[in-house]
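Retry 2 of 3 after timeout on previous attempt. Resubmitting structure tokens to design endpoint.
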């Protein structure tokens, strides 16, 4: 189900005039700030550090597996196990078991991660 905001953005992105303005803006930004060797090196280092710190390979594989199974109808979203909300995230306690998920609403998902990290 798409929201009003998502439908608006889809229409806007389909507009050739908007896409042309966006391309001009992107090119101007890259030419002035975005494409410096220092920025590219800093961004590459940030991405390497994040990837190593978070084990993102397994994380992304697990997310893709869940998304695929939900789309195929073999995994059904359940209500939040804490409050029963319908809008939920799939939370993995163990990325090596990608289809073993807990269904948590966004606020309880944030709470769960805050408790896990001690924040």
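Retry 2 succeeded. Sequence:
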């Amino acid at each position: 189900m798409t929201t009003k905001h998502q439908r608006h953005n889809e229409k806007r992105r389909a507009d050739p005039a908007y896409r042309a303005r966006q391309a001009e803006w992107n090119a101007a930004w890259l030419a002035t700030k975005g494409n410096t060797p220092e920025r590219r090196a800093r961004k590459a280092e940030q991405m390497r550090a994040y990837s190593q710190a978070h084990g993102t390979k397994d994380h992304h594989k697990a997310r893709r597996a869940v998304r695929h199974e939900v789309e195929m109808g073999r995994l059904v979203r359940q209500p939040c196990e804490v409050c029963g909300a319908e809008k939920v995230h799939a939370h993995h306690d163990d990325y090596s078991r990608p289809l073993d998920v807990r269904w948590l609403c966004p606020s309880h998902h944030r709470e769960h991660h805050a408790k896990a990290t001690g924040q």
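Attempt log closed. The radius of gyration is 19 Å.
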